[in-house]
Amino acid sequence: MRIRPSLLAFALVAASPQAWAQTPPAPSNDRPIEVAVQGSWVGPASFGSANQNYTRPAGSPYPVFEAESSLGSGFGVEANIGYPLAARLQAELTGGWSRSSLQTKIDDDVEDADDVTLTETLMRFSVEGAALWTFLTRDRSTVFLRGGGGWMRELAGSGALVEDGFVANAGVGMKYWWGTATPGQAKRIGLRVEGRLSIRSGGITLGEKSVRVAPIASGGLIFRF
């Protein structure tokens, strides 16, 4: 018995009706890149104190005055670029800039002069690498731990004084995504907030402390591509 080609084609289509109803799956991005732009508040830090002494003929110190220096709170901006290494682990590159007030109080003058406080602007630029580990995930939000370190440069006196140093950070934060993710969706926008401790070594030092610890709080928008 001979089967006409037209009947054979009809039989094949009828046997697999879902072949024409299926659509190719939407492409998914299982390695999305995240970019965050945040404003930051930098807490105060102490530089300690330093004494100005003369030397008596017998060799003992003769105090002239005492200077106590501190860094006031300030504001800045920072940008983070994150790339996932595993399901809960992400590597980040961070660049930041901040501006604070550097204050030095001079008192205990040997000639009983009035106490005076000198103020100068201090700017800090930093580039850091960090690791971010997500330990809690909800429908639209995640909570993470973050730690890292890198290079910083501090400038004071309109750039007349420039010193490099090391900065390290550790803290906790949260990401909140607007809208509900759909299968195959890569682009999202949300809010990122975090608090951390900043440990700075080197840079501009005006007292006995070469290592300073200060709190930092930041928040801003985060984009996923």
Write up what this structure looks like:
With 225 residues, the protein is mainly beta. It has one domain: Beta Barrel (Porin). 5% of the residues lie in helices and 64% in strands. The protein contains one helix and ten strands, in the order αββββββββββ. An eight-stranded antiparallel barrel has the order 1-4-5-6-7-8-9-10. The chain is elongated and about 80 Å long. It starts with a helix and ends with a strand. Residues 7-21 and 23-27 have low confidence and may be disordered.
List the helices and strands and how they pair.
Layout: H1 5-15, E1 34-42, E2 45-55, E3 61-71, E4 74-84, E5 89-107, E6 116-137, E7 141-156, E8 161-177, E9 188-202, E10 211-224
Antiparallel strand pairs: 1-4, 1-10, 2-3, 3-5, 4-5, 5-6, 6-7, 7-8, 8-9, 9-10
Write down the CATH class: Mainly Beta
Global shape: elongated
What distance separates the N and C termini? 60 Å
Order of helices and strands: HEEEEEEEEEE
Count of helix runs: 1
In total, how many beta strands?
10
Query: Roughly what fraction of the amino acids lie in strands?
Result: over 45%
Helix content: under 10%
Summed up, the domain count is: 1
CATH level-3 fold name: Porin
Mean pLDDT: 83
CATH architecture: Beta Barrel
Report the biggest beta sheet as strand number plus sense, adding barrel if it closes.
8 strands, antiparallel, barrel
What is the rounded Rg? 30 Å
Keyphrases for this structure?
1 helix, 225 residues, Porin, 64% strand, mainly beta, elongated
